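TICKET #2291
ISSUE: user wants both folds in one file
ATTACHMENT 1:
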Amino acid sequence: MDFVARAPRIPAPGETVLGGDFRMLPGGKGANQANAAARLLRDGRVHMCGRVGYDAFADGLRASLAAAGVDTAFVTATQQAATGVAMIWLDEAGQNSILVAPGANLAVDRAFLEPLRPLFRRAACALFQLETPLDAVAYGLRIAREEGALTILDPAPAQPLPRELLEQVDLLTPNETEAAMLTGESDAEEALLAMGARGVVLKLGARGCSHAGMHVPGFAVDVVDTTAAGDTFNAALAVALAEEKEIAAALRFANAAAALSVTKLGAQTPAPSREEVDDYCSRLP
């Protein structure tokens, strides 16, 4: 669950800033991506796999996903921890600073993932993030690839990643900050490939994205909130690749979906529908 507060600027360490409005909105990187993918997918089904606690937030988060068309059969409750939360500060330009308390997300482990093999076997794409334990992410990536799914990893929140994990990633999708943290080099795409990733899509914010030496420009929009732009991008990319679009067309589709997502407040509610993205793309030069 996202706790979102607006302020003139994001507080510096030790500073108190008088903010504006406050909202409590469904969030979580995996849930954001599942929500966006379900809104964008023409045919098929999106499954969300994860953990929540036994608390006031769990039912609301499941209901929000189900309302978008996500199958939540594999979102299970644990008594080990509370449902994960994020504290999000938004400045007047729509930029954000986020603190995540993972809670029940940390209860995702190999024992939770192993029964998902049949699900991965039926999947075109499997999306992963780093809000669950790294060992679970590595294991999930491995069994997803073993069962034939295309694996996409959003390496956020950024942390060092071992080569054996990266070798199970078909497409790694860092933003520039995450790429720099992972590599410490200016030519991040080449460095990430050398570290083991099979393919890299570098998210460049308003400038779009790049892949294999190809730059796909972004689209100019009025920015309200950038909170889940990267999640929407990943979801749209997965949907486009599942529909067997060429990579350039898939990246353009992902850029368009991400651009539309930042024109509204929140992480899941702003995710555009397929009709909205197709209509937007049809009007672009």
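ATTACHMENT 2:
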Amino acid sequence: MEVINQYLNYIKYKKNLSKNTIDSYYVDIKKYFNYLNSNGIDLKSVTENDIISYIIKLESNKISPSSISRNISSIKSFHEYLFFNHISMNNPAKTIKKPKVSKYDMNILSKEEIYLLLDFKMDDKKSIRDKAIFEILYGTGIKVSELVMLDIDDINLSLDYIHCKNTKIDRIIPITDVVRFYLKKYIKEARCEIAKEYEKALFVNSFGNRFTRQGLWKLIKKRAEYVNIKKNINPSMLRNSFAIHLLNEGANIAVVGKILGNSNLSSMQSYIEHIDNNIRKEIKDKHPRKTNKGGFFDESNLDDNR
């Protein structure tokens, strides 16, 4: 495990990777390392076939293509480090290819499933807190990692916004009346009694301390299981659902991109591909230029095979 710690220090201080990326790489490499040990494979003598066998094992466990792609990135980075630091004599991961992730490989929740997640009884302080968490996640598209870093001072209920300032893209995110209502209820009725006296975090756990990303994610999975949602819920699902549901209602993609913190519109392409087919049909059926009634367009120029 010492070599893993050395590698983590390398990507932290030399590569300057984000904490979230480092955490993900650590989880991936630790699982990979355990696999090698359980199969009696020495790290210095790993072959390309060993890595491929591990990838096949991940696939057999129904790991999503995007997760497998990330695992391969972690493994390739790790073996590159081992090779350039003369810990191993070759780089067996050099020619390993990442699977092509389909642009349709985005699992979202339906509106009905969202309603199930948000349908809380709110009969105690914990449920009031949890209701506020789910409302803000779906109501703003904020990442789980961003939500746990929110401080109480980042919330402005008078002007209806939250200030997300702990990421590369500092941004102001507007909140709806619904989100404001449940945030206000949580702050006034629950947080004041749960949080420790000097805790700055907006959302706190049962001990009064700031939620960890892992703790919050366990809460989300537990809630999904409780309301009998069968999908393999993942950290991006509420965020993706927020974006696609907005787009399906006709929201401007540039505005949605700014809210999400995606400054490059090309990164929104995967969302575009999920816009409801009914909307596409609506445009084709009802757009004033769908036919040649005005006589300005020669339909013979259309190539149906392009």
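RESOLUTION: both attachments delivered.
EXTRA DETAIL ON ATTACHMENT 2: The chain has two domains: 2-84, 111-272.
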